[in-house]
Amino acid sequence: MSASSDFSLDMGRCNACAIRHQAVCGVLRDGELVRLNQISRRRTFDVGQVIMTDDDRAEFFANVVSGVIKLAKTLPDGRQQIVGLLFAPDFVGRAYSENNPYFAEAATEVELCCFPRDSFESVLKEYPGLEHRLFERTLDELDSAREWMVLLGRKTAQEKVASFLFLLAKRSRLTGCPHVTATPTPTFELPLTRADIADYLGLTIETVSRQITKLKTTGVIKLLGTQHIAVPDFATLGELAGQEHPAIH
User: Fold this and answer.
1) Distance of alpha carbon 203 from alpha carbon 185, whole angstroms
2) Dihedral sign, CA of 164, 166, 172, 178?
3) Selection from 62, 60, 11, 57 nearest residue 32 by Cα
4) Taking a C-beta distance cutoff of 8 angstroms, is the pair 113, 65 a contact?
5) Which region among 35-39, 44-48, 183-187 has the lowest average model confidence (pLDDT)?
6) Order of strands across the sheet that contains 110-116
């Protein structure tokens, strides 16, 4: 096979990727993207499968291609606290760190585009644009963590549950072709059990269920199944979540 054929094959894989332009690698030019593609491989994880454990040596980083990942920190007595969720096209892992910063588990079926740690860090040095994009994403994660601190410390139970559903509704619309008109009603599957949602929001299971029922009764959301939710009134959900100017995009 010729070099041009190899190039076309590598670019074909990336061009078919649903998150190419939204992930950290979206900043790369074609030739640079092929270089990154050469060290990558796709991996899938079933629901509940451990992706990485906190404080163990970091073996790889990854882009989330599809699915939702639950992040947790392990306490000295073995208990775990959910500290975040990752969606497509988020980045998994922390570059230039010897150990994993968190415990990561597949909350849904997950597909990752994985990069060996040492090889990926070498590519970062070769392409400053990629390193800069990753730095921007890291700052975005820091901002999100600070916003979540406000949610946990100051928001009411209604605001907490609304904020969680608002986040899922927005992220459910993030990937896909931008030229396809999206349906006016966001729909998504809850990636967490009621118990995990309660843990994540600092509430009881009963409070979470009560607030979801209230949102359903007022018509802000619709329950299409035990885990499947539609949001016909996205603007009101955003207002209940404390968003000044709620928008889908």
Assistant:
1) 27
2) negative
3) 11
4) yes
5) 183-187
6) 41-45, 110-116, 60-66, 91-92
Q: Three-state SS for 231?
A: coil
Residue type at 14? C
CATH code of the domain occupying 155-240: 1.10.10.10
Task: Report helix, strand and coil shares of the chain as percent, to nearest 5.
Answer: 45, 20, 35
How does DSSP classify residue 112?
A: E
What are the strands of the beta sheet with 187-189, ordered from one edge?
187-189, 228-230, 222-223
State the distance between the two ends of the chain, measured CA to CA, in whole angstroms.
43
* Distant-in-sequence, close-in-space partners of 34: CB < 8 Å, separation ≥ 6: 7, 10, 11, 14
Q: Which two tokens stand for residue 120?
A: 């990926």
Calculate Rg over the CA atoms of the chain: 19
Global pTM reads 0.86
- Domain locations in the chain? 3-146, 155-240
Q: Is the pLDDT of residue 199 over 60?
A: yes
Provide CATH code, domain 3-146: 2.60.120.10
In this structure, what token pair is assigned to residue 110?
A: 């997950």
Whole-number Å distance between alpha carbons of 227 and 83: 21
- Residue 113 CA to residue 25 CA, distance in Å, equals 11
pLDDT in tens, 106-125: 999 999 999 999 999 999 99
Contact 236, 220 (CB under 8 A): yes
Which residues are CB-neighbours of 110 under 8 A, at least 6 positions away?
44, 45, 49, 51, 64, 66, 67, 68, 69
